[in-house]
Amino acid sequence: MLYQLEDGSIHNDAGFLVYMSTDRFLDSIVSGDCCFICGRAPSKTDFNKEHILSNWILNRYKLHSKYIDLPNATGHSYGSYTIPCCVNCNGLMNTIFEIPIREYVLKGYSHIKTALHRDGPLRFFVWLALIFLKTHLKDSRIPLHRDKRKGSGNISDAYAWNELHHLHCVARMFFTMCDLDPATLGTVYLAPALCDTGIEPFDYADNLEAQTVMIRLDCIALIAVLNDCNATGSILEADLMKLPGPFEPLELRELFVHFTNVNLQIINRPKFMTHADGRLGRLAIRAENIPSDWETRLFDQTQFATLMNRYCYMTKSVEGQKHDPELLKQGKITFLKEPEGGYKYMKYQKWPNRFNSR
Question: Which alpha helices (DSSP H) does the chain contain, by range?
Fold first, then answer.
């Protein structure tokens, strides 16, 4: 059986909080110090720190003493880049996600490709959703200004947390054991990454507004759109099939920009809901209003240029060439190769404003 609490949250017969209302999410997780998975307070269970990037990633790529760039133009050590989590939930995430995904990464691109075809993208999708969610939850604990004379508040004070509530429901579904409608899954794209490029074999990027995320680990890269019901993947599919791999680091950054840009252009977005069946004692996450045709705005050169300048600022281009920073600022440069050679924009820049979603 399921039981609803005064704040709209739901717990089951065992006392587990299987659904956190938006208010509970904001009070206990975003602003509080409860475990971001089960919602328990530190006074109720044993706690430890959950690394936003798992220790196996930090160890493999020697990241503990390196810094991640934050939205306030400062850095934060990966080694202390953590959020509150209880021991039980930490161990559960390690068993369900980190151990098997580590094995896939160690075996290489072809093994992950086989796993995606055989088992579907759910495990990788939720894993990326967890990393994305943890990254932005951490922003609620980092001051916007290191110098307090410049003002107070945290990096996340302007975040639209209501829009991340659904993602929180998805990220903790391994704990709540809720059902997930396959149509709810966002885009997951696996790309082969070129190794031995002289650039470190790890990279991470995300975009809060578009809810997009990319991670590069040795010879594999995963890009996900967490809120699009695979619309972005459908729109880009024909162009992506034409691009030769493996991709250099800067090419992967540009691919991430294309996924982000397309998702920001979608007009008729789906709506996500968590439904409770009290009789069966089950929750289900569903997407509603999924259109038969995705409608998009026309290509926005200014938005594309802004994204390219933000994510492709690295000075080393493909094949060791330098790029013109002014062309990058204008969105008039691309690093993606086509089979016949040369560098061209992806053809979706001339897209129609409707795409079939099936």
Answer: 22-24, 55-60, 87-93, 99-107, 109-119, 122-139, 161-171, 173-176, 231-242, 249-265, 301-311, 325-329
